[in-house]
Amino acid sequence: MTARILVVDDIPANVKLLEARLLAEYFDVLTADNGFKALEIVDNTAVDLILLDIMMPGMDGFEVCERLKANPRTSHIPVVMVTALDQSADRVRGLKAGADDFLTKPVNDLQLVSRVKSLVRLKMLSDELRIRAETARNVGMDDFMRLESMDAPGQVLLVDSRASSQERIIRTLKPVAEVTAMSDPQAAVFEAAENAFDLVIVNGNSEDYDPLRLCSQLRLLERTRFLPLLLVTDLGQEDVVVRALDLGVNDYIIRPIDPNELVARTLTQIKRKRYNDRLRSSVRQTIELAVTDGLTGLNNRRYLDNHLKTLFNRAAVRGRPLSVCITDIDRFKQVNDTYGHDIGDEVLKEFAKRIRTTVRGADLACRYGGEEFVVVMPDTDGTSATAIAERLRRIIEQAPFDLPGTGLTLNITASLGIATNLSGLDTPEQLMKQADKALYEAKNQGRNRVVAAAA
Questions:
Q1: How do strand 4-8 and strand 28-32 relate by DSSP bridges?
Q2: How many angstroms separate the first and last alpha carbons of the chain?
Q3: Dist CA 209 CA 314 (whole Å)
Q4: What is the pTM of this model?
C-alpha cells in the first residue's frame, strides 16, 4: 500500500522525524510548515492523508481542519492531529473540527503506521465509491450526495460484559444514539448481522472473550464487513490497538472514558458510515440505471444482450428449451402523431406494466427499443411460449389503456413473434432473428396476433 501523506508542523525537527518514519514505509511525503501552505498544497495536489500539528502560528490546526472539512473538494481527506497536548478538551475540539484521529507526541512508531494505513485503506474505499457516485450524478442523479438522515439518532450496538460500564456508556450516548447493550459476544455477532446498526462499540474489559476475535468475526461477515467498530481499551495496551487497527477496527478510545470524547468519536463514526452508505447506494443506483430502461422500469437492451447469451448457453448445455417473444405495439406511430410523445410514453409505461403482470418470475422482460419489447422464457417450449404470448395479447387488447392525468382512454393491440432454441439454432442472435421474422409475419397477417417461427 502506498499513499501521499502531507505532514504539517512548524517545527522542522518534528517534520523530519515523521517524514523519515513514513518514507521508511514507502509513503510519498509532502511537508508544510504552516496552515496556509498546507491548504495551498491540498488545493493543488492530490493528498491521501494529513498529519496536522495543532499549535502553529498564524492559523492553528483546528482552523486548518475546519477549513479542510468545510470544502467539498477536501472534506473526504482523513486528518490526524498530532500534538504535544494530551488534554481531553483538545481531543474533543479536534474531533468536532472534523479530525479523524489524534496522536500525541512523542508519536509511537507502530501506532503511527497502523493508524495511517487504516485511514488510507478507508480513503481508498471512499474514493472508489465517490468516483462511481460521480458517474451517477453525471447521468442525472443530482441529489446523490444528499444525506437526509445525517442528524437522526444513531443505532449503536454495545458489547460489554459489565453492567456498570454498560449503564455509563448508555447514559453518555443517550442524547445522540439509541444503544443496544449485550454481554454475550457471539449473540452480539448475530445481532449485528441481523439489524441495521451504525456502530459497534466493543469494550475489551472482559477476561471471558477476546475483543479482537469478536472484531475479526464482524469483519469476516458480509453483512457487517463495513460496519464501523470502536474499541474501548486500557492505557498502555498499544499492541492491542495496533493489532485492532490492522484487523480493520475504525477507532479506539482509552479508559477511563471521557464522555465528551466518546460522544465525539461516536458521532464521527456514525456520520462516516452514513456517508459511505449513501455512496454505496448511489453505486447500486448507477448499476441499475445502466441496465434499466428509465421510462418503463424494465431491463434495457444492454442487459438483454448480455443475459440472453448466458441463458442460451445454459439451455444448450442442459438440453433445455428456451423461447423468446418479441412484441410490438400496433400502429404506435399513429399514437405519437395524434396525441404527442408524452401520451406515447404513457402508453409505453402501461404496456410495460401489463407485461410485468403477465410474465412469470423466471422470465426476463426487457424494452428492446422504441415500441418493441422482448420476453425471454427459460425452460419453455414453443407451445407453452405461444400460450403465454397469447395471454399477453389478450390482456393488451381486452382492457383499454386509461392514461392517468390525460382523460384519454385508448384501445391498443400488439403483434407478437415467437422462436425457440430447439429448432436448430446455434446462437442467441439467430434465436432473436427468428423471433423478429415471426413478428414481421404477424404484422403482415393483419396485426394483433401471435405467430411462432417454423421449427
A1: parallel
A2: 59
A3: 48
A4: 0.58
Torsion angles phi and psi, residue 450, rounded to 5: -110, 130
Under the banding of pLDDT at 50, 70 and 90, the label for residue 147 is: very low
* CA-closest candidate to residue 268, choices 279, 253, 255, 257: 253
233 close to 252: Cβ distance less than 8 angstroms: yes
For residue 140, count CB atoms less than 10 angstroms from its CB and return exposed for 0-12, middle for 13-18, buried for 19 or more.
Answer: exposed
The residues with which 297 forms a beta bridge, in sequence order, are: none
Residue 51 contacts residue 82 (beta carbons within 8 Å): yes
SS3 185: helix
Reported as half-sphere exposure (CB side, CA atoms, 13 A), residue 200 has a value of: 31
Q: Are 205 and 162 in contact (CB under 8 A)?
A: yes
Beta strands in 175-250 (DSSP E): 177-182, 199-203, 229-234
Q: How confident is the model at residue 148 (pLDDT cuts 50, 70, 90)?
A: very low
371 is catalytic: yes
Strand partners, 417: 326, 451
pLDDT tens, residue by residue, 382-422: 999 999 999 999 999 999 999 877 788 999 999 999 999 97
Which residue is catalytic, options 167, 222, 371, 397? 371
**105-109-113-114 Cα dihedral, nearest 10 degrees:** -90
CA dihedral 18, 22, 23, 24 (to 10 degrees): 110
Half-sphere exposure (Cβ direction) of 323: Cα atoms closer than 13 Å: 26
Residues 168-190: pLDDT tens digits?
999 999 988 999 999 999 999 99
What are the cell numbers at 163?
453492567
Domain architecture of the chain: domains with CATH: 1-107 (3.40.50.2300), 145-282 (3.40.50.2300), 301-452 (3.30.70.270)
The CA–CA distances, whole Å, from 249 to 206, 240, 376 equal 18, 11, 46
Cα four-point dihedral sign 85, 255, 51, 90:
negative
C-alpha cell at 332: 404506435
pLDDT digits (tens, 9 = 90+) for 359-388: 888 899 999 999 999 999 999 999 999 999
Spatial distance between the Cα atoms of 81 and 61, rounded to a whole number of angstroms: 7
Q: What angle do CA 164, 166, 171 make, to 5 degrees?
A: 100
